[in-house]
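quick q for whoever's on today - can somebody do inverse folding on this one?? i tried earlier but teh output was garbage lol. C-alpha cells:
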C-alpha cells in the first residue's frame, strides 16, 4: 500500500480481494498521534472507511478483523483510578475521538457481517527503530536526546504516568488474544493490551540516565496538546485474564534494547540522524 498517497490507497481498496477463506486481518495502520491535525485525522478516517468497505465485500472469506486501537486515546480523561474494559470511554482529544469512531464503525459492520471483530486497546507501545520523525515514542526520543546531548522538549509534567509496553510484548499478547477468540464463539471482544505497570516520565529519565551514564537534556514547555494529556493512566485488563500471565519486558530491559539499537545505528550509518 502506498500509505502516503490517500487516493491511491482508496483506489487499491476498491479493487481489493481476499483470495483465501478463513483469513484473519489485523489493522494496525495509522500515522497520527495526539498532536495530529484534523486534516490528518480526517484522511486517516477516509482510509479506514475504504478498508471497511473492502472488508464488507470480502466478508465471506474473512474469519476476524482485529483493530489495534489506543487505550490512552479512547479512555482519555477517565474518572476511574484504574481503567478496565468496563470503564466508559471518554476521549478528550480529536485523536482519541477518531480511534473510538473507528471502533464503533467496525463493530457496527460486524453486526450484519459473518466475521468477528476484535479490538485491542494498546497502552504506550515502545521499542527499537521507532520512527523518530513522528511526534510519538517518548522513550525513543529521550534516548536519542541522551545519546546526542541534544535537548528534548517535554510538554507535560515529569510526574505524568503512563503504562509503557514493549513492542514485542504487544505482538505476543495480541497473538494470544486472537488465538483464544478463534476458539470461542462470542460477541465482539475488547481487550486492553498493557504491561500492567505505570511509570512516570521522571522514572523513565532516571533509568535512561543510569543505563547511558549520561544526563538527558530536557526543556519544558506547553502547547495546545498539553491539556489533552491526563496526569495518570493506570490500566488493568479484566477480560481474558489468562493473557495477563504473559511476562512483559521490564522497563529497564526495554530501554536497554533501544539504547543498543540507537548506538548501532550511530556506528553503522555514514550520516547518522542524531
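ok took a stab at it. sequence:
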Amino acid at each position: 500500500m502506498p500509505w502516503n498517497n490517500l487516493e491511491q490507497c482508496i483506489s487499491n481498496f476498491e479493487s481489493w480481494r481476499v483470495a483465501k477463506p478463513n483469513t484473519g486481518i489485523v489493522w494496525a495502520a495509522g500515522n497520527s498521534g495526539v498532536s495530529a491535525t484534523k486534516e490528518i485525522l480526517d484522511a486517516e478516517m477516509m482510509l479506514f472507511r475504504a478498508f471497511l468497505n473492502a472488508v464488507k465485500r470480502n466478508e465471506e472469506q474473512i474469519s476476524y478483523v482485529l483493530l489495534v486501537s489506543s487505550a490512552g486515546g479512547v479512555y482519555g480523561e477517565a474518572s476511574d483510578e484504574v481503567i478496565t474494559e468496563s470503564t466508559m470511554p471518554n476521549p478528550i482529544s480529536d485523536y482519541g475521538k477518531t480511534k473510538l469512531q473507528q471502533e464503533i464503525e467496525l463493530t457496527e459492520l460486524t453486526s450484519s457481517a459473518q466475521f468477528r471483530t476484535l479490538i485491542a486497546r494498546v497502552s504506550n507501545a515502545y521499542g527499537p527503530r521507532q520512527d523518530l520523525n513522528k511526534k510519538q515514542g517518548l522513550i525513543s526520543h529521550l534516548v536519542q536526546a541522551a545519546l546526542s546531548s541534544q535537548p528534548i522538549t517535554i510538554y507535560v509534567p515529569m510526574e505524568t504516568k503512563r503504562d509503557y509496553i514493549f513492542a514485542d510484548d504487544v505482538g505476543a499478547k495480541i497473538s494470544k488474544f486472537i488465538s483464544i477468540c478463534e476458539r470461542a464463539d462470542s460477541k465482539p471482544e475488547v481487550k486492553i493490551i498493557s504491561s500492567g505497570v505505570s511509570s512516570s516520565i521522571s522514572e523513565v529519565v532516571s533509568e535512561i540516565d543510569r543505563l547511558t551514564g549520561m544526563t538527558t537534556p530536557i526543556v519544558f514547555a506547553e502547547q495546545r496538546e498539553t491539556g489533552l494529556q491526563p496526569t495518570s493512566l493506570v490500566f488493568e485488563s479484566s477480560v481474558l485474564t489468562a493473557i495477563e500471565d504473559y511476562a512483559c519486558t521490564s522497563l529497564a530491559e526495554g530501554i536497554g534494547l533501544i539504547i543498543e539499537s540507537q548506538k548501532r545505528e550511530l556506528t553503522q550509518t555514514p550520516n547518522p540522524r542524531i
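fwiw The longest strand covers residues 62-70. also Strands lie at 23-27, 62-70, 116-122, 124-126, 152-154, 161-166, 189-193, 198-200, 218-220. so keep that in mind when u check it
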